[in-house]
């Protein structure tokens, strides 16, 4: 019976259009605020057969749109961990997160390490401040509950990750604003305090940022792992990763990092 529930959970949470049961490593992608799985799940066709790519579908969107949104980061992390745990124990895995997804991927990595002694072989974060950085604090004080729809929409447009034609459709626009608001609310419940002596992770961390995006405090990711940390600026704005030429760069680079991890 338990197996059946885990299977149902996988069906809801994990989107993997290019299944590779013999892959050496799983790359699990975490979407941005308001985002679904369509773009990152398609990365599977860009990678070689040694890497299986899946993207996480969070509650409240796509085929889960009737489900309530996660109420806080802990709830989200617990769902992701309980569904993925068995898979993650079977073979090596890496995480890629963009923006809001970077914070979730870090929170999940932290939980896996603390509770199960499990860790990704590599953490790829993109377009996000380190969660231990001063620069992360203003995100926590965006008055998301009282923000008018227009303000949320303006914020979404500044980020520029939404095709303008989607915003022509009133229902789609409403749902996007709602999803974005709920994702931001979850992010505001995430508190991470790094203690002086404790370095939480030991995997290598790679930080990507769009060259035209607002600068993110990436340096502080350095303090979160005893592994190597590297930094790349990639041409483009906050959603640089949707450009085909950048997808190719990311695919090659992520592949090289994973293959160098000596699986």
UniProtKB/TrEMBL annotation:
Its EC number is 3.1.2.14. Residues 26-246 form the Thioesterase domain. The keyword Lipid metabolism applies. It catalyses: (9Z)-octadecenoyl-[ACP] + H2O = (9Z)-octadecenoate + holo-[ACP] + H(+). It comes from the Eukaryota. The keyword Glycosyltransferase does not apply. GO terms for molecular function: fatty acyl-[ACP] hydrolase activity. Gene3D superfamilies: alpha/beta hydrolase (3.40.50.1820). Keywords: Fatty acid biosynthesis, Fatty acid metabolism, Hydrolase, Lipid biosynthesis, Lipid metabolism. GO terms for biological process: medium-chain fatty acid biosynthetic process. Belongs to the thioesterase family. PANTHER family: S-ACYL FATTY ACID SYNTHASE THIOESTERASE, MEDIUM CHAIN (PTHR11487:SF0), THIOESTERASE (PTHR11487). This is S-acyl fatty acid synthase thioesterase, medium chain. The lineage of its organism: Eukaryota, Metazoa, Chordata, Craniata, Vertebrata. The gene is Sast.
């Amino acid at each position: 019976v338990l197996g059946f529930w885990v299977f149902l959970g996988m069906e809801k949470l994990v989107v993997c259009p290019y299944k590779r049961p013999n892959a050496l490593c799983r790359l699990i992608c975490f979407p941005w605020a308001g985002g679904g799985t369509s773009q990152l799940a398609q990365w599977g066709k860009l990678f070689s057969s040694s890497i299986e790519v899946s993207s996480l579908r969070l509650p409240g969107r796509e085929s889960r749109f009737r489900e309530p949104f996660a109420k806080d980061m802990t709830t989200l992390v617990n769902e992701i961990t309980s569904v993925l745990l068995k898979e993650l124990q079977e073979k090596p895995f890496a995480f890629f997160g963009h923006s809001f997804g970077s914070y979730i991927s870090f929170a999940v990595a932290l939980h896996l390490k603390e509770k199960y002694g499990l860790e990704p072989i590599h953490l790829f974060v993109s377009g996000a401040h380190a969660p231990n950085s001063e620069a992360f604090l203003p995100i926590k004080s965006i008055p998301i509950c009282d923000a008018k729809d227009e303000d949320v929409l303006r914020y979404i447009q500044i980020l520029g990750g939404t095709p303008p034609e989607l915003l022509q459709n009133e229902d789609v626009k409403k749902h996007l604003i709602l999803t974005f608001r709920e994702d931001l609310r979850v992010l505001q419940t995430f508190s991470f305090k790094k203690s002086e002596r404790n370095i939480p992770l030991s995997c290598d961390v790679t930080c990507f940022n769009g060259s035209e995006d607002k600068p993110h405090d990436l340096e502080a990711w350095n303090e979160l792992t005893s592994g190597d940390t590297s930094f790349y600026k990639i041409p483009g704005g906050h959603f640089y990763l949707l450009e085909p030429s950048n997808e190719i760069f990311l695919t090659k680079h992520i592949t090289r990092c994973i293959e160098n991890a000596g699986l």
